Amino acid sequence: DSGVTQTPKHLITATGQRVTLRCSPRSGDLSVYWYQQSLDQGLQFLIQYYNGEERAKGNILERFSAQQFPDLHSELNLSSLELGDSALYFCASSVVGQSTSGNTIYFGEGSWLTVV
Amino acid sequence: AQSVTQPDIHITVSEGASLELRCNYSYGATPYLFWYVQSPGQGLQLLLKYFSGDTLVQGIKGFEAEFKRSQSSFNLRKPSVHWSDAAEYFCAVEDGANNLFFGTGTRLTVIP
Fold first, then answer.
1. How far apart are CA B90 and CA B109, in angstroms?
2. Taking burial as the number of CB atoms within 10 A of a residue's CB, which of A91, B24, B63, B87 is the most buried?
3. Out of A2, A58, A97, whose CB is closest to B43?
4. Each residue of B50-72: pLDDT tens digit?
């Protein structure tokens, strides 16, 4: 158990709909990351937050957005869903948002999203 | 831009045999490199990481990896594979801001 909690574990929804994925980071971690794992694109970095502020963006679609709340949990909002958005969405967390030799990124077990 | 190549999509080894999974990276500066493992239906677990110093890195579950700057490689090794090692293995490079860029993964099958 990494200590990163994601809900829901599984979600099935229809095209055009909107969903919200939730993540609670490890206790004490200030940075939250979102990754997408799909058959087509593999594992892709989407976005990073540090202590409530957006820190970096990767290949995140405009239909997707995220935020990190004062209690440090994060939500990933996916809207106008398409079949191709079906994927495993990982949340990860770390103590800080910069590279240090002791900084490890811990991943949750992911949220499986199926768009039908 | 940073990138990682894992040339082997699928590898099959016999239990007790040695294992080497290949990883080549592209990065302009000194890379921070990682190996993660994903068991079916599970999240990603960190096996080991390289930041600096000794180029041979020891990890969990008996795994090790060697950083070779001249070959831009960070291959993962294990001297004797166990059936429980069957999983998907991902190599990753970090971009200097703690964001990881992953290879396409290598699926390991272990036969008795």
1. 15
2. A91
3. A2
4. 988 889 999 999 999 999 999 99
Q: Answer yes or no: do B46 and A101 touch at CB < 8 A.
A: no
Check whether A100 has a pLDDT greater than 60.
no
CB atoms within 10 A of CB B24: 17
Amino acid of residue B54 = D
In order of A6, A36, B6, B36, B56, the CA distances from A29 in angstroms are 15, 21, 30, 20, 28
- Overall average pLDDT of the A41-70 stretch: 94
Q: What are the tokens at B100?
A: 């990881």
Residues of chain B with pLDDT under 50: none
pLDDT-wise least confident of A51-55, A95-99, B24-28, B79-83: A95-99
Strands (DSSP E) contained in chain A are 5-7, 10-13, 19-24, 31-38, 42-50, 53-57, 64-68, 74-78, 87-94, 106-107, 111-115
Asked whether B63 and B76 are in contact (CB, 8 A), the reply is: yes
Residue with tokens 């990351």: A33
Q: Does B17 touch chain A (CB under 8 A)?
A: no
Residue A71 φ/ψ, nearest 5 degrees: -85, 5
pLDDT at residue A97 is higher than 80: no
Contact yes or no for B99 and A99 at CB 8 A: no
User: What is residue B61's three-state secondary structure?
Assistant: helix
